[in-house]
Design brief:
Elements (H helix, E strand, L loop, with lengths): L11 H8 L12 E3 L2 H8 L4 E3 L3 H16 L8 E6 L14 H4 L4 E2 L8 H12 L6 E6 L6 E8 L6 H11 L6 E3 L8 H4 L5 E8 L4 E8 L3 H15 L16
Parallel strand pairs: 1-2, 3-5, 7-8
Antiparallel strand pairs: 3-6, 4-5, 6-9, 8-9
Helix pairs in contact: 3-5
């Protein structure tokens, strides 16, 4: 179960384009399974190499999947806006991650160039069964952990909040780590902090024919090591929730 980005992208050329270097083990790409359990559970059960997803893609793909499978949306209109705690930017030392730089400020970074963009597009294309591209902008916010993603999609026909909410409830009826918020309510990163849960809330703005989806995860758990444990449990035939039902931090 690989936590790096080396095996998340299916195409060697895409990896080279976004990571600026030649892939060192392209022969392993064909045997790799993308480790997002909600959509690749059967493949994970027998995989010899599992690519653990990135944190931003996990939050974005889980948020948008029901709409892509249902259809009726404008695939060229998808915009993903994500905000991450400082730990989401990695452990390497840099000026912008120092306390004095990150505290009491919010900023966008790697605008239109973040390496998670092709990963998000790859999985959304899989769900939509057609190639698509998105606009993705990440932001760094002054907290240690957590990701809040807001996704915007245009829809072609009139649709109610009730219908969209039921779509999400029907799509995630028994996923152990995806929780759909009650209609009209939205997730908070504090509610998933330290857990493997992804909370999702939906809204409909009829004035501009737009569906708005908000998701929240802990980037260090469902966005990283927790999802790796979830994949391990699936691969070895253990209960998928083993070791992952610890209550979140309070406060």
């Amino acid at each position: 179960i690989d936590l790096s980005a080396d095996f998340r992208l299916k195409l060697e050329t895409t990896y080279s384009e976004w990571y600026g270097e030649k892939h060192q083990a392209p022969h392993l790409l064909k045997k790799t399974v993308y480790g997002l359990p909600e959509f690749h559970r059967k493949e994970i059960q027998k995989a010899s190499l599992i690519a653990n997803p990135g944190c931003y893609p996990t939050s974005a793909v889980l948020a948008l999947a029901p709409l892509l499978r249902e259809g009726g949306i404008d695939l060229d209109s998808i915009v993903v806006d994500s905000k991450s705690g400082v730990s989401g930017a990695g452990r390497s030392v840099s000026e912008d991650k120092q306390f004095i730089e990150a505290h009491e400020g919010v900023k966008a970074y790697k605008v239109a160039s973040h390496r998670h963009t092709p990963e998000i597009e790859q999985e959304l294309s899989f769900l939509a069964e057609t190639p698509l591209k998105i606009s993705f902008t990440p932001h760094l916010i002054p907290m240690s952990r957590g990701i809040l993603t807001t996704a915007y999609v245009h829809f072609s026909n009139s649709i109610s909040l009730e219908k969209v909410h039921k779509l999400y409830q029907k799509f995630y009826p028994s996923e152990p780590f995806v929780r759909v918020c009650p209609a009209g309510q939205f997730p908070n990163t504090s509610h998933v902090r330290g857990t493997n849960f992804c909370d999702i809330g939906v809204a409909v703005d009829p004035r501009v024919n737009r569906i708005i989806v908000v998701s929240a995860i802990d980037n260090l758990v469902k966005g990283a090591s927790g999802q790796a444990i979830q994949n391990m449990n699936i691969r070895f035939g253990w209960d998928e929730t083993t070791g992952l039902l610890t209550p979140g931090f309070v406060p």
